[in-house]
UniProtKB/TrEMBL annotation:
Mode of membrane association: Single-pass membrane protein
SUPFAM superfamilies reported for this sequence: Ctag/Cox11
Chief site of localization: mitochondrion
Signal peptide: 1-18
Keywords per UniProt: Membrane, Signal, Transmembrane, Transmembrane helix
Membrane keyword on record: yes
UniProt cross-references to Pfam families, sorted A to Z: CtaG_Cox11
Highest taxon listed in the record's lineage: Eukaryota
Biological role stated in the UniProt entry: Exerts its effect at some terminal stage of cytochrome c oxidase synthesis, probably by being involved in the insertion of the copper B into subunit I.
Protein name as it appears in the record: Uncharacterized protein
Subcellular locations according to the entry: Mitochondrion inner membrane
């Protein structure tokens, strides 16, 4: 009975550690929660649209927002609330993070795209998302998001 219960405890602890990466993979595979799905690389899409001539002159307004988890003493906000970009062109946006506590804190950001129908057209080229950011007390940094809208 002791071996069975010990095995159960080990399995539960292992499941809790595996939950975040498994959930992330599930969301990326299914597009759940506005997570962007990948079918071809951004470089392949840019090359395909350049070759096909499927570039438009219409501008799209991409709006940014940010939320911070309860109890996290950070100020986290987009530097600009909106960027106008033409499909087929890449764009750059920034977020500002500030540690308002008296101790160093490490944070990780996630992202999603809404409405969900737009998520398949939004391609991150480079982003601070899913990377640990360690801020010293009172430190403030600007973090870039380089993205591309698929025509």
């Amino acid at each position: 009975m002791l071996i069975y219960l010990t095995g159960l405890v080990v399995a539960m602890v292992g499941s809790s550690y595996a939950a975040v990466p498994l959930y992330r993979r599930f969301c990326q595979a299914t597009g759940y929660g506005g997570t962007v799905q990948r079918r071809e690389s951004v470089e392949e899409k840019i090359a395909r649209h350049s070759k096909d001539g499927t570039v438009t002159t219409r501008e799209i307004a991409v709006q940014f927002n940010a939320d911070v988890g309860d109890g996290m003493p950070w100020k986290f906000a987009p530097t600009q609330r909106e960027v106008r970009v033409k499909p087929g062109e890449s764009a750059l946006a920034f977020y500002t993070a500030e540690n308002r506590s008296s101790t160093p804190i490490t944070g990780v950001s996630t992202y999603n795209v809404t409405p969900m129908k737009a998520a398949v057209y939004f391609n991150k080229i480079q982003c601070f998302c899913f990377e640990e950011q360690r801020l010293l007390p009172g430190e403030q940094i600007d973090m870039p998001v380089f993205f591309y809208i698929d025509p």
